[in-house]
Design a protein that fits this description.
This protein has 246 residues and is of the alpha/beta class. The chain has a single domain, classed as Glucose-6-phosphate isomerase like protein, domain 1 (Rossmann fold). It is built from ten helices and seven strands. Strands 2-1-3-4-5 form a five-stranded parallel beta sheet, sandwiched between helices. A two-stranded antiparallel ribbon has the order 6-7. β3, α6 and β4 form a beta-alpha-beta unit. The N and C termini lie far apart (45 Å). The model has no long low-confidence stretch (mean pLDDT 95). This is SIS domain-containing protein. InterPro entries: RpiR-like_SIS, SIS_dom, SIS_dom_sf, SIS_GmhA/DiaA_subfam. Pfam families: SIS_2.
Length: 246
């Protein structure tokens, strides 16, 4: 398969997933949940392990993104310190409270949890913790993948089974989209591209809903706009003491 054919194959796969993702009823449902939380002065928590942590970063301190976002970005569950160790740690039960960094979720809050497989213990623990606090859970996952594997949590549950709303990224089992010719090697993962697209649709919907109710949602601008620096500084001054990493 030549370069042009590879590009077309990946584009075709991505386009189809984006099309399916954009037509999910759950995008509106998730937007409504987030808007409702913000109306009550709640917080939007965001979490993922491994590459899925990028989904939490995607909606944090982002041009066009909401200010009241608390990302749970624990270095040991990310990739920049010890990628292989993060794979082991995400399978350990009983650690979710440690990773919250002192935050106390309430029934006003929403947690968005990204996990392609939705099977690992930390992900399930955090969802169970949010459920105990009566917070809303939005799952970003691949139902194809998640339904094909067993849970790694003693409860036997997977993320999509605990969520109030499930956002399906329509990923293949194993995430990759293309099998290379004359090989059994699969490549071209789709979860980051499609996941970012879905989350921005959800955030945009939430902002639109708040505006339609006559409210003024707090939204970051690009710091590289002439107006962005002062605008963002006001939000940073307001929330820096309340949001770890801001």
């Amino acid at each position: 398969m030549g370069t042009e054919d590879l590009n077309k194959a990946f584009l075709s796969s991505i386009y189809r997933k984006l099309e399916l993702a954009a037509n999910q009823k759950s995008i509106d449902e998730a937007g409504n949940i987030i808007a409702g939380s913000l109306e009550k002065n709640g917080w939007i928590y965001a979490f993922g392990t491994g590459h899925s942590h990028m989904m939490a970063e995607e909606i944090f301190y982002r041009a066009g993104g909401l200010a009241r976002v608390r990302p749970i970005l624990h270095p040991k569950l990310m990739l920049h310190e010890d990628a292989s160790a993060s794979t082991d740690l995400e399978r350990e039960e009983g650690k979710a409270k440690d990773y919250l960094g002192g935050y106390q979720m309430t029934n006003k809050d929403v947690i968005l949890i990204a996990s392609n497989s939705g099977r690992n213990a930390v992900t399930i623990d955090l969802a169970l913790l949010a459920k105990a606090k009566k917070g809303k859970i939005i799952a970003l996952t691949s139902l194809n993948h998640s339904k094909s594997v067993e849970s790694r949590h003693t409860s036997g549950l997977k993320l999509f089974q605990l969520a109030d709303v499930v956002l399906d990224n329509f990923g293949e089992i194993g995430d990759t989209s293309i099998t290379l010719q004359k090989s059994n090697i699969r490549t071209s993962p789709s979860s980051t591209i499609v996941g970012s697209f879905i989350l921005n649709l959800v955030i945009t919907k939430a902002i639109e809903l708040l505006i339609s109710k006559g409210l003024s949602p707090e939204v970051f601008q690009s710091s590289n706009l002439d107006s962005g620096g002062a605008h963002n500084e006001n939000l940073i001054n307001k929330y820096k003491s309340k949001v770890k990493g801001l």
